Amino acid sequence: MEEEAGERDASARTARSPLSKAQVGTDHDEAVGSSAEHRDESSPAGSSTPALDEPSSAVPSPPRTSDPSSPRLLVRPAGSTWRPPAIGGYRFAAAAAASLGEQMLQKIVADSPELLGLPLVAVARELSVPDTGSLDLACVDGSGAITLVECKLRDNAEIRRTVIGQILAYAAGLWRLDYAEFERRFNRSAQVPLLEAARRTVGEDDWDDEAFRRAVAATLAAGRFDLVIAVDAITEELKRIVRYLNEHTISEMRVLAFELAYAKEGDLEILVPALYGQEMKPSPSGPVWDESKLFATLAERCPQGETAVRAIYEHAMARGAVLSWGRAPLPAVTASFEVDGARARVWTCQTHETPNISVNFDWMREVVSLKRLSVLADRIGGLPGAAKRLDGLEAAGWRRRPGLPIVDVLSRPRVAARFCEAIDELIGGEAPSAEPAVR
Q: Model's pTM, two decimal places?
């Protein structure tokens, strides 16, 4: 019964190390509940007490290295039986120190802000807030939207109520802060300066330093923030507080609880993310765009290029691309493809200023081989009107995202089809059997 349940839920959201061949699944709440209960009450460290309600000869118990906030997961190494992961929870992964566990949670969110739905942001850790203290994480996207994140473990007493006061105090401390002072504090805490990091989220060709400064200044002046409490387990009390604040506060502020449960089995790391509160109030930082809004905007701003973009968009969908919709003032979308087993953010369509599709070499270089990048650059550079936009790309270490104007380049005859062929060559797929509907 345990095996069947685990296999049914094998698609549970997990973050896995490629080094392990272990299988991961979720099992019955009853089975896992009784397992955790048994371990906590009667199993000393290193005990061989059964982990599930099965004979001890069938399911050996791992050492006692889990806490109640660890995800309800079972693992099954090849040829073995289902059992809880060897390590469950941040405290045990960080040598049982709660403070180290919170630092671990903080680092995971900082390294992977896409878990919060923020794939393209500048991040500062331990941002000093005037007369308040150090905020765990501050995230700023290219449109000037700001998200504040505070991390707490469930067994930290501050998760009950103090953390809400903390993050509200940080928001109040940043409210009406001068942009120059905010940038100075951000740069002191971040690995990459604010302007440089934010520029990477938009692309060089459409970047405007002054417009970004004005957008961030407006966000600070209005106190228009997303406030996120990142925890290993969302408590019912925290849910009630989040619900109350979202229903009784102004639209410029939104409070979210972000659960990121953690477990580990050998080289296999497991994350189980869940976001609470997003459905209660729209983002104060601007709308989240979608396909219909993208093409409605293109039809209005550059109708002669809409057909070309649609062909490229539909090609991405047919190739299984993952789409990330931005929150900029005008619609934007990034298409990520699997390249040699890794997810690469290949192109971004933007409709502000001069509508264009940028080719994200700066992001791809982290996961795509230089040989593939060089071939892609040759193919894109060979498109009519595109060569000059790739000048100096390799000399810059591929740290650029050249934009191809939709009207001047991509709407030319057969250019969109050739763009799609270049993407197919990058991802190792077959060339399209029929040319996209571009004339």
A: 0.54
